[in-house]
UniProtKB/TrEMBL annotation:
Pfam families: DNA_photolyase (PF00875), FAD_binding_7 (PF03441). GO terms for biological process: photoreactive repair; response to light stimulus. Keywords: Chromophore, FAD, Flavoprotein. The keyword Transmembrane helix does not apply. GO terms for molecular function: deoxyribodipyrimidine photo-lyase activity; DNA binding; FAD binding. It comes from Siminovitchia acidinfaciens. It catalyses: cyclobutadipyrimidine (in DNA) = 2 pyrimidine residues (in DNA). The keyword Flavoprotein applies. FAD binds at residues 222, 274, 374-376. Its EC number is 4.1.99.3. Its cofactor is (6R)-5,10-methylene-5,6,7,8-tetrahydrofolate; FAD. Binds 1 FAD per subunit. The record marks 308, 361, 384 as: Electron transfer via tryptophanyl radical. This is Deoxyribodipyrimidine photo-lyase.
Amino acid sequence: MIKTIVLFHRDLRLHDNPALTAAAQRGIVIPVFIWSPNEGAFGDEGSASSWWLSQSLHALRQRLDGHGLKLIVRMGQRSTVIRTLLHETDATAVYMNGCYEPDCRNTDDNWVETFIKKGIEVKQFSASLLISATKLLNVQGKPYKVYTAFLKKFHTSSVPRPLPVPKELHGLNEDIHTETIDNLPLLSSNTWHLKLHNHWEPGETVAIKRWNEFLKTSLIEYKDGRDFPGDEAVSKLSPHIAFGEISVRGIWHAIERNRVFSENPKLHSSMDAFQKQLVWRDFSYHQLFHFPSIRTKPIRQPFEHFPWHTDAASLTNWMHGQTGYPIVDAGMRQLWETGWVHNRVRMIVASFLTKHLLIAWQEGERWFSNTLVDFDMANNAMGWQWSAGSGNDAAPYFRIFNPILQGKKFDKNGEYVRKWIPELRLLPSAYIHEPWTAPKHILDAAQVQLGENYPFPLVDHSVARQRALEAYQQIK
């Protein structure tokens, strides 16, 4: 039978995996994962997402074992490793689902061209987005910079239907050397990542189960509840999606199937809102593909000259949830404890860093890349540029979130703050988002000692807001 290497990237699943399906139709499938941190497919992950990758690879290996396939794990330059494997296995082709990260794409383009010239069949498929990032262009043939225009164009196209797990999968009979997953340099020497086991279970099987439960029980509350971090109205699928454990095309079409069988306008409204978030994810990858420097450089040129501050102490306080603004600190502590933070709170903490503290968004992007289990380059960079006002279709820089009002609006009774800041748990709701305004007897009764067990605010909101607006005037 014809042998095909299937190279896994951020597509750690068997369902809706076009490369796997095409290889299965050819004959024998040889699944391969290559750890090549200098070539962009993986390696930018921080401690949290590296932990997720290690666990997801274990889950993938088990899934493949159940279908009679052995996952071959190697380390090294992809072209060298693949050349070696072609020789060891007598495979005649390499199939993979393409990546959009700039270094990964450039590396793959180089070795793919070389291999094809040598007569080796190499095919790349699209699997990570609803619609390939290369397909949606405006009437001038240029990339979109505004989400609403992108969304309108998106709706003129159709999302491909997801592929099932191949019915027949044939693996190699030979024993080919593989590294053990635990030998990959994914887990840091510190033990910070160990607590992530308390909050997450990576893998395709869990991802599908989580999605089906959300679809049946919680999706109806999504539109009304998604901005309230104390509620359970969000799916928490983002890390599963980031590593390709579940197909976004499968999610899209599952919503469409369920839409047909429901006449509930609230459910339809939540379905629309959820699908728009999936399209926003496509838009983020559209930006990464066409503006590959998005992770390190502002897309809007004036922001290259923004007068950012260098303030290591304030940055550290922000990282560890010690800013004195409870909604900000709750979000940063949730991130440190779980590797994830609610999307509304992501916007609040990002606004605080870039506008209240005037610290460059790249600092926040780096911290999130290290601590998020759902880190992916496109969404993280797009989110930070949106918050800083420096990206395409970003929030205007002069839109400065008031962390007090944001807390009162989206965590009215303080449940979220109390969960992540236990030192404030006894504080009445009237003061939970601005404890420095509480009378001394209220603070004493709540066992809150400002400046001791909870900090005073790093900056005054009104002063910080005026300072940010003055900084913005310098680049207008």
